């Protein structure tokens, strides 16, 4: 399975993240304009590195999807907050699902800032009103590559994960949500979303555009 890892200045996290990949899983690190040597670190630790000059989470994810070649593809943050060892278990659930997403469960207090957690809860509640039984916007997810390409998600910013869920719901996809551990980010990295109220508000703006 290919694992797409959007990356912007995650050099401090990448060695451990890439070392945690299960056997047989290939990392595709999509560099989104890093200035800390992330592409070189990723390459040195065995990842396929592709570059996406357009800034934006969705742009990086889509470029990684286009670079993937496996039938199944996974997506994860490259900051060390997620356990890639959970991917094989999630992949097995695709036998009865079209999309498997992770519901973050913080391993300790302070891992998930209040402003990010509150924004996520509001968006998730709106999705449930649309008939999609999820409680997170799912930074860890697994699906079939061709099906995701056909879904034609258009957002190239922070609204991408939400648009994916909205389109999956509209397409009648079977979405399975499972609990996954949510850990502190690797030291020396900073979240572009939850790391500040401003980042959270920017992400909320992008997601609000999806829900209009």
UniProtKB/TrEMBL annotation:
<protein>
    <submittedName>
        <fullName>Glycosyltransferase family 2 protein</fullName>
    </submittedName>
</protein>
<dbReference type="InterPro" id="IPR050256">
    <property type="entry name" value="Glycosyltransferase_2"/>
</dbReference>
<feature type="domain" description="Glycosyltransferase 2-like">
    <location>
        <begin position="3"/>
        <end position="145"/>
    </location>
</feature>
<dbReference type="Pfam" id="PF00535">
    <property type="entry name" value="Glycos_transf_2"/>
</dbReference>
<comment type="similarity">
    <text>Belongs to the glycosyltransferase 2 family.</text>
</comment>
<dbReference type="InterPro" id="IPR029044">
    <property type="entry name" value="Nucleotide-diphossugar_trans"/>
</dbReference>
<dbReference type="InterPro" id="IPR001173">
    <property type="entry name" value="Glyco_trans_2-like"/>
</dbReference>
């Amino acid at each position: 399975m290919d694992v797409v890892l959007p990356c912007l200045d995650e050099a401090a996290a990448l060695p451990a993240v890439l070392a945690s990949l299960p056997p047989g899983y290939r990392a595709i690190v999509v560099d989104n304009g890093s200035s800390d040597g992330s592409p070189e670190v990723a390459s040195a630790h065995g990842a396929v590195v592709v570059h996406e000059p357009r800034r934006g989470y969705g742009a990086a994810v889509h470029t990684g999807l286009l670079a993937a070649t496996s039938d199944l593809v996974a997506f994860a943050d490259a900051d060390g907050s997620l356990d890639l060892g959970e991917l094989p278990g999630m992949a097995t659930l695709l036998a009865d699902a079209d999309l498997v997403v992770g519901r973050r469960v913080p391993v300790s207090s302070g891992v998930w800032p209040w402003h990010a957690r509150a924004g996520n809860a509001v968006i998730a509640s709106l999705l449930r009103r649309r008939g999609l039984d999820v409680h997170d916007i799912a930074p860890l997810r697994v699906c079939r590559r061709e099906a995701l390409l056909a879904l034609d998600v258009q957002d190239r910013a922070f609204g991408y994960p939400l648009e994916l869920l909205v389109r999956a719901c509209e397409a009648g996809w079977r979405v399975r949500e499972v609990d996954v551990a949510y850990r502190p980010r690797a030291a020396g990295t900073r979240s572009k979303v939850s790391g500040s109220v401003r980042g959270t508000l920017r992400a909320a703006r992008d997601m609000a555009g999806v829900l209009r």
